[in-house]
Design a protein that fits this description.
With about 210 residues, this protein is mainly beta. Helices cover about 10% and strands about 45% of the residues.
């Protein structure tokens, strides 16, 4: 994946009123999840913006509430590309990926961003764009290629996640489909349903006519 550098400030003033004020100033409330898992009770000092969330079995996880500039995340949000985010907060570098973005239902402005902290040894699930390459046999025979899934969910350490999932369709025949379960990529696990159709070559009226004559 490409790397995206993003500066953030810790957010200590929480709540709807505070978030509304931030957005009016061109800032976006965000949270960094997936932080350090600690044993409870936890007695060490938390950094600005950090809070401890209990996850059961005597364990807790440290999340960080942050704020980022709207202008700083435009190229991160409004693109089909997938990025590994190098986040700077509280004077330290932390690696993350984009997990979820909440948009205003009418204005389409960004209301909130969820980031997930990642490491080289911890697999994460990320949606990666699909790129088809080659010339399908079915298209040569008069069929129409249809891409049903523009992105696939892949599971791997973030350092192994590619910018694109490239699928060769040379052998895809007329009227045939290619399902998730038929795809295999070294170092990646596909977590979409196995029977989900990624792409297909549909029969056209001309193709049906040619087949009937043959």
């Amino acid at each position: 994946m490409k790397t995206y550098n993003l500066a953030a400030q810790p957010r200590t003033d929480l709540g709807k009123k505070a978030a509304k004020t931030l957005r009016a100033e061109g800032l976006i409330p965000a949270v960094l999840n997936g932080g350090e898992i600690v044993t409870l009770p936890y007695t060490a000092a938390l950094k600005p913006g950090e809070k401890l969330v209990e996850i059961g079995n005597g364990k807790g996880i440290i999340t960080t509430d942050i704020v980022v500039k709207n202008d700083d995340v435009r190229k991160l949000l409004y693109t089909p590309d997938v990025f590994a985010i190098e986040l700077e907060v509280n004077g330290e570098k932390r690696n993350a990926v984009l997990r979820e973005v909440q948009f205003h239902p009418v204005k389409d402005t960004v209301l909130h961003i969820d980031l997930l902290e990642v490491s080289e040894n911890k697999p994460v699930v990320v949606e990666v764009p699909v790129k088809l390459e080659g010339h399908a046999e079915g298209v040569k025979a008069g069929g129409k290629l249809q891409l049903s899934m523009k992105k696939l969910k892949v599971k791997a350490p973030y350092t192994q996640i590619p910018e694109r999932v490239v699928i060769n369709i040379d052998n895809l025949g007329l009227g045939k489909t290619l399902q998730v379960g038929e795809l295999h990529f070294e170092g990646l696990e596909l977590v979409n349903a196995k029977n989900a159709v990624v792409c297909a070559v549909q029969l056209t009226r001309a193709a049906r006519g040619a087949a009937a004559k043959a």
